[in-house]
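Progress note, project year one: complex with fe (ii) ion.
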Amino acid sequence: MGFFSKDIKTLDDLFVHTLRDIYYAEKQIEKALPKMIDKATDPQLKAGFEKHLDQTKGHIERVKQVFELHGVKAKQINCPAIDGILEEADDVSGDVDDKEVLDAALIASAQAVEHYEMTRYGTLIAWAKQLGRSDCANVLAKNLKEEQATDRKLTEMAESKINLQAAE
Ligand SMILES: [Fe+2]
Ligand SMILES: [Fe+2]
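Model obtained:
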C-alpha cells in the first residue's frame, strides 16, 4: 500500500497507517537486534543492545496498547524505510573486518534505527494530540523517551570509547 494511496482520507487514517508502519518497524528491529548483539565485541555495547532488545519488546507491547486504545486492529504494514536501514546495517557490518571498527559501524547503524523510530514517534505523538487522543500520545511518548535515551547512550559510548578504539 502506497503512502498516499486512496484509502488514507483523514488524519485519523494517516495516524493508523503510521502506527502500523512503526509496528512493523519495531518487529523488524526485534529480529535484527540479536544479530547486532552477536556481532558486538565491546561488552558495554553488547549489554546496551541487549537492554534495547528488552525495551523493544516493550515498545511492541505499547504500540499494541495504542491500537487497542484507538479501537483499531493491530496490523503491520511494510515499511521499506526500516527494511533499507536494517539491510544497510547488515551489509556494512558484513564488510568490516576489524572488530573495533565493526563496533563503530554497529553504533552508526543502531543510531540510524533510533532516529527513524524517533521521527515516527514524534509524528505519531503530534497527530495523536491533534486527534484528541492524549491517552495514545502518552503511551507513545514512553517509547520515544526510551529511543532518545538509547540514542544518547550510543553517542556517549561512541565518543568516549568506541571511536577512539576504532581509530587506533
Ligand atoms: Fe523501539
Ligand atoms: Fe529503538
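Residues 89 and 108 are 8 Å apart (CA to CA).
The two ends are 47 Å apart (CA to CA).
No further modelling is planned for this target in the current period.
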